[in-house]
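During the reporting period the student researcher (J.K.) took over the structure-prediction task from the postdoctoral fellow and processed the backlog of single-chain submissions. One of the processed entries is reproduced below for the supervisory committee.
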Amino acid sequence: MGKPTGFIEYERVLPKDRDPIERVKDWDEFHEHMPEEALREQGSRCMDCGIPFCHLGDVVSDGDKGSGCPVNNLIPEWNDLLYRGLWREALERLHKTNNFPEFTGRICPAPCEEACTLNIFDDPVSIKTIECAIIDKAWEEGWVEPQIPAHRTGKKVAIVG
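J.K. obtained the following structure tokens:
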């Protein structure tokens, strides 16, 4: 990992929420974007665990629900790449396990953060924030493009809950 002492040097920081009076007027994100330097500091908090439980979403034993990321994202790897400023490589690593981080990064309850080893004695790495930042930058830079279907079926999907 890029900064072995990052988890000692930096506190967990989450993006600020927009004022509710303002955010009810639009459909924009209700979390403000964090500056790149702050995101890189958060990525540096990843501890290079010997066995990182954050990305272990598999069932380990009978009755176990798993403890980390349900899609087995390679979290320590993209945290390190983000810390080093290698955004495109971080996106590639994120896409190895997750085709839709722009959705999952926002709706997932982040069991990876609960499973983060740092969470045992301190606040966990802000993994969910980092995941969203990687995919948001990818869209801004044009590294990801919409994949419009060649043929529409006319069917619709509704999500409730």
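The committee noted the following: The helical segments are 6-9, 20-23, 36-44, 75-83, 87-95, 101-107, 111-115, 127-141.
J.K. will present the remaining backlog at the next meeting.
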